[in-house]
Automatic annotation (TrEMBL):
Protein name: Membrane protein
Protein keywords: Membrane, Transmembrane, Transmembrane helix
Lineage: Bacteria, Bacillati, Actinomycetota, Actinomycetes, Kitasatosporales
Transmembrane intervals: 105-127, 133-154, 175-196, 216-236
Keyword Transmembrane appears in the UniProt entry: yes
Keyword Transmembrane helix: yes
GO BP terms: carbohydrate metabolic process
Organism this protein belongs to: Streptomyces spinoverrucosus
Amino acid sequence: MAVQEARQGAEARAGAFGSAHDGGCTCGNCPHGARAGHRRAVAEFLLKRDEFAAGQGLPAAVAHSASASRQWVSDELTQSAAAVAERARAEGEAWLSRLWRRTACAVWGLVLLLLLVQSLTAIGTGWTTARTAGLLAALLVAAALTAASFFHRARGGVLAPVIGEDNRLSTSRAVAAMWVLFVAYAVLVLAGQLAAASAPGGRDELIAGLELARGAGVVTVLAVACGIAVLVRRVVGLRVLGQRLQKVRADRPRAADLLTDDSGRGTFADLQYVVISAVALVFASVRLARRPDQLPDLPWGLAVVVLVSAATYLAGKYAEGGRPVVLSVVRSREAGDLDAPIRTGEDIEIRGAGFVPPGAGTADRLSRMVVRIGPVHVHVPLVPVTGGFSNPTDTLLTVPVPAEVEPGRVEVRVVTAAGVETNAYAIEVTE
């Protein structure tokens, strides 16, 4: 009752000082955009969290009770975090809708860069048919990408095919897309030269440039990269459905997703796959520039290096993640307390691993964690400290045993923010 009264008072104060357009709605009557609204919501949440961590802002109705004050603080932070998450989703959608223009400009910028490079390298040697074919092929690819970007403008434009179901950039899809675009460009260059060739011998030489013996390395790498992209999607989907991998959705894709895991930490498997593939692609581009009359003959040594890198990336996908597990449950004891069994109304510590999935460290996702003690569902309270939260953590949760739990032997399970449930751990609850 005290918590409800305190919350009603806080809502009344918020209504007195706020309005419908505070924050950053995207309607025409509001001067702030989605980005400004998200930043303001984040700043307000961080200020509130640090105030609660310092023991400030507690209403008198709950200040006398440690459990009531903890519940009130957790509920207030949960509501504030939900507002931040809503602003983040709005900003992510607005960012994606603007991205297609930037990607289209980047594509045409690459075309201009190609024109500049061809013009500089043509000094002294003259303009050739191969240069014209390369420029026309770039124009065709850029036009196709721009059209696709327009039709997928709500999903990030050109980047739409490489954005995964978790709203992050997919490393496997990005690498496969790079090789697909490169091979398509190389074939268009040959097609342009073939269309301009007049001598029968020149046409036969260009057609022979498409033979598998000359481009076997590139074709092999292309096939493996596309196969890895399809296989990784299947592997990740099956592991998520089998509760062997925890996935949470990101607010928006970022370039760092290509080199990091869901929590933003760099991963060796992704990093080496992107770097080696990029190096091989640069080498193939140079070979195409030197011999535009045939598919780039990627040496088998370099092709095998790319294949080993792809196998390492795939093995990393199989090895990552894991199901959360409860290792032990003990009675929470403060200094001066006597040793005793677990009773209703007391706190318990749940020790284990994997309670916080990668990318779920924000307050709105931490507040979704639930502990099932017998038939009773207990939401894990948020306990703020300066700069973060002391509860919950990836290896330790502290929750109260509610009075609704019947004395006797009950099972404890943890449900993470990704919806994955841990193993059952039996405890004895006394009156």
